[in-house]
Amino acid sequence: MRKTQWLKKGIYGLAWSFILFAGIRILSGGILESTWWKSFTRSVTGAAFWVAAPASAYIMEEEMPDTMAEFMIRMVRGTVPVWEYAGRWGTKNYGIQDPFYTEHAAIERIERETEEKKDILALEENQADASIIEQNPDIKDVQALPSDIFTPAVVGSQYSIAKLSDYDFLVRNFYVISEITTITSSELNAKTLLEKDLTIKENVGEPQILIYHTHYSENFVDSREGVEEDSVVGVGSYLASILSEHYGYSVYHDKTPYDMMNGTLDRSKAYDYASEGLEKILDQYPSIEVIIDLHRDGVNEGVHLVTEVNGKPTAQIMFVNGISRSTMQGDIPYLYNPYIQDNLAFSLMLQLKAKAYYPDFTRRILINAYRYNLHFRPRSILVETGAQTNTLEEAMNAMEPLAVMLHEILSGGEHE
């Protein structure tokens, strides 16, 4: 037993000696980039990881990096697999973001800035609207909404299959792909995705659509602390009311506080708790065909994800796809999802509807490495509604165009 322990310590020490040596060479500008050096270092450090940290070694199973420096960076990241999975360090518990995600949220906002700025009067009107919402938990009368909200006109862009079949064009205009994952042109094939039939039949009396919130406690800039109607849950209630009252869908709104189990905020286990909750709900209501996990994002305080839809300030939304694959290890077996292609099709179809009807309403679709509980149904989607810098009114307004887009896909294109 002692010999084994000393052997482990010896291998581990040798591996880190090589890492120290490589670091010194990098600082001195003389690192060897030859294939034999990379292979030799990888072999030695890999052996140490398998002995001392098998979980990290599992993550390190990947293709050969282009440079020695890249390999070292990946190896260090591999030593903290929990961080790789959760992507939560330094994010203030906002949204699902990782550092890459936060950076691109800010970049997107800069790219989307237009010359049309809201004047002080408009801001005061928005604040007045928000105060009305606070006084009325029901927020809106769906039947009183203007009919043109539900009969949108094409004012934006429509794309041919030929154009969308250009992988570079598709990614450049529709997606943000996280640096910790990879996706191929065969998997992100617009023609194949758009040929999928995601319509659902009328099913009166049994729930068809499930809305829930992995991060129940997410609030907006003017939300009252502890008031459910002012949180992302209240926004979900409004979406449920539109889908049920105007379009006639049977909607189940799950208000379980998955990130507040036992009264304590804990987002590290929220997806696990939500998974258990979803299994119970789907066992009880197998008729559910559509699952929507409604969030609000977290961005830098200077970023305001807002546009104008139907003449009202509206929070921009973003669809998120998890493809259960990391760049470092490839497919992640314990995050298996048989519906990845269906999930991708659902978000792309919704994105195209937004491009046609509400050109500035959606941010680019985020593709990330994880699963986000999108594996329970083919028509599963994670939606980020604005961020912590948006008002509750802006988030509420976003549910109107989102409902229109969902109905277009689920009904096959009929407005009413």
Structure in words:
By secondary structure, the protein is of the alpha/beta class. The chain contains 14 helices and eleven strands. Helices cover 44% and strands 12% of the residues. Helix 1 (2-28) runs antiparallel to helix 2 and helix 13 crosses helix 14 (392-411). The protein is globular, with a radius of gyration of 24 Å. The termini are far apart. The relative contact order is 0.15. The model is unreliable at 28-35, 48-67, 76-107, 114-121 and 128-139 (pLDDT under 50).
Keywords, please?
416 residues; alpha/beta; 7-stranded mixed sheet; 14 helices; 11 strands
Helix content: 40-55%
- Strand numbers in spatial order across the main sheet: 1-10-7-11-4-2-3
User: Order of SSEs, N→C?
Assistant: HHHHHHHHHEHEHEHEEEEEEHEEH
List low-confidence stretches: 28-35, 48-67, 76-107, 114-121, 128-139
Structural class based on helices, strands and sheet pairing: alpha/beta
Measured by DSSP, the beta-strand proportion falls in 5-15%
Number of E-state strands: 11
How is the secondary structure organized here?
Blueprint: H1 2-28, H2 35-52, H3 54-59, H4 68-78, H5 81-86, H6 99-112, H7 120-135, H8 161-164, H9 167-174, E1 175-177, H10 190-194, E2 209-212, H11 232-246, E3 251-253, H12 270-284, E4 290-297, E5 306-309, E6 312-315, E7 317-322, E8 325-326, E9 330-331, H13 340-357, E10 365-368, E11 379-387, H14 392-411
Helix pairs in contact: 1-2, 11-14, 13-14
